[in-house]
Amino acid sequence: MMLQLASTFSQLSLSQYLVLSSLLFVIGLVGFLTRRNLIVMFLCTELMFQAAAIAFVAFGRYWFDFSGQVFVIFILTVAAAEAALALALVVLLYRRRSTLNADDWMELCE
Amino acid sequence: MMTSTAIRIAELVPAVPPVPVAEVVEATSHWWAGFILWFPLISLVLCGLCAAFRVRSKLPAWITIGSLACSFVLTILLGNAEDVPERILLFEWISMEWLGGSFVANFALYIDSLTILWMSFVTGLGTLIALYASEYMEPDVGKGYTRFFSGVSIFLFAMGCLVMGDNLLMLYLGWEGVGFASYWLIGYYYRRPEAVAAAKKAFIVNRIGDLGLALAVYLIWATFGTVQYNELMTIIQSGDFSEVYEGWSVKAIPYLLMLAAFGKSAQLPLYVWLPDAMEGPTPVSALIHAATMVTAGIYLIARMYPFFLLEPASLHLVAWVGGLTALLAATIGMAQYDIKRIFAYSTVSQLGFMFLGLGVLTTYGAAYHVFTHAFFKAVLFLTAGAVMHGFAGQLDLRKLSGLRRMKGWRIVAWTMFVGCICLAGFPFTSGYFSKDAILAEAFVTQGPGFQVLGWLAIFTAFLTAYYTFRVWCRVCAGPVHYEPGDELHDDDHHDDHHDDHHDDHHGEHGFHPHAPRFAINFVLVVISVGALLAAVPYFMPNEVEGIKGGWVADMVHGSSAASGIPGHPDHPGSLSDSAHGDGHAHHGTILGMDPHSAMYYISGVVGGVGLLLAFWLHLWRRQDADRLRSWLLSRAWIRWLPVAMENKWYVDEVYHALVRAPLWLLGHVFHAFDRYIVDGLLVDGTSRLPRLLGRWFQPLQNGLLQSYAVTMAGGAVLIVLMMVLMMQFFQGGAVQ
User: Fold this and answer.
1) What is the pTM (predicted TM-score) of this model?
2) Which of B702, B705, B713 sits opposite A29 (nearest CB)?
3) Residue of A nearest to B700 (CA)
4) Which ipTM did the prediction report?
5) CA distance to partner chain B, nearest, from residue A38 (Å)
6) Does domain A36-99 bear CATH number 3.20.20.70?
7) Contact: B704, A34; criterion CB under 8 Å
8) What is the dihedral of CA A24, A26, A27, A33, to 10 degrees?
């Protein structure tokens, strides 16, 4: 009954949203794991954020629950703050060594 | 199985009906008796204040002497005022009652004649010896002076608790207190390793005895339900306790008390601490380790005598241990060269005589010997102290001679002579009468081998006379000759001291022995007069009918030790009295004579022979002594005897091998266990585990951002997988 009501409001089923979300997430993850450029890696994390946001919205819509959307608002806020912070860090790191390669910062583990 | 006590006592001592315990009087009129205890405590506090304000004068000595003198005066007043046992409540200490039981141990005094007898010489000698110490400890004014006198004060307080306490708990408090004071004062010269070792030895050996006392107090309370003397004696008189613990606790109590007494009074298994305790200052040796504290064991047994009468075998053991200790210590004392050590061994030996007296049922003899011994042994130690003080710590009797011919030393020489004749039991001295009371009773009382024991004791008396006069003849008589010792109070002749090493032994180059001054001489004279006068109570008329032996016998008779006074008609005090009833089957004889009459001759002769032997070997023909010694040492069959005696029969070595070495080994085993198992395995092992895990996971921390991300992603996947699996599992279970 609920499922039918959902499908009348939307042509796309929940699973399709979830597939999109997963795809975005995996792209972000693979990008994060394979690229060495700090800014690209940062953009990949943003992708993963958005994948999660899509999943939230999809579920929220599916269950007629607005919490999903509320969460997305939160995610956007956090992502914005995090973007400001991360970009600032990247700028600082670049000023030190004039490189954006993540592998050049190995010694930070100590 | 336990018959009435009255019957038991009657079996042992036929002629005397059991003395009914006098009803205790709860006295309030003698409230001031508490100050006998409080005065030393006040003195302790004042001495502490002196230390706090860095008093650099003899003030602490005068405070101590003054308060001890007050205690003494009060003791005498109390002795005059007291006629029946009375209890004086000072304050409520422990007082608990519950359904069917109680535990009452108030801070109260139990004043009977035994208490008075003991306290009279404890406080009297305490005062005099404190006066002596005020001069003796002079070099330490401003340094250890206050420490010394606080120690003396706390000792007197503890001894007062021990003797005057109304219950066993107060006695225990005092018992531990005197042990502590003894430790404090033996270790007075705490910079010297020997003194520290001696203090520890005394304390540790005493712990063994203290364990016995603690167990005895517990057993007594468990068996009789009270620890107060008066209540205990009433219960024992009534005989109404036989079935408690099937009677075994009543049998065990005397042995535990005995262990305590043997520890404190330096008897056979546990005597080794006393000779070493001579490392303390000499007044301490005189007061604590000769006159007062070491007699606490005698006091304990005398006070608890009814318990011993319940188990006669325990008294036989007391007698044998005492007799053998007396002999052993006398043989060791014969072969030592250090004057103080000789006197220490003689103390052990005389304490052995006292235990022999307790064992052969003459508490009177034991108490009288305690009384006389306190005086003459104090004199001997104090003279030894004066010598030590004047000759820079010299105590070797081979290096001192002719004291009586030296200016300023005559009083020391002759007071030592008085002490010696009393100790040797020379006829008509105090030691003669008190020792005879014990020796004769060994032949009177029936017991396992008591005849043999009596002869052993007579032989010991001979040795005593010999070694006592060996000291006097060597040190006080003969040609004048001396060498200074090497230390202690080298105040003014420090430079001369170094010269002595270059010069010859005669010591007259630069070294001037400083003769004792007024305080020491005064105290020596007073105590030696006391030692002579201690014979007088023997001749005093008895107030109590049927016993003899003078004032001391009266004092003992009026106390819980009373059952130990044999009261047959010809008891001591009557040289002429030969008519003794043969009706008593128990009455032994010696050489066909009544022991009490015979003993006057036997011990007089024996003492005289020992004395003459000492004069011959150590005064008239000193080279004979050397010749005898070399003769003994050159014969293989007898060589072991002098060697063993000089080495104290190797008792310390045997204890070292049997007790100290195993404990040392055990200590190291425990140390190893602690080090390697507890610390190594448990503590360090626990800390090593996270380190090991850390080392395994450390490679993950490689600094590559992507590898962290992979780990995180992998972890997240793992968690999700696990959750999925678990959900399936539980749901599957729920479905089925």
Assistant:
1) 0.78
2) B713
3) A109
4) 0.79
5) 10
6) no
7) no
8) 140
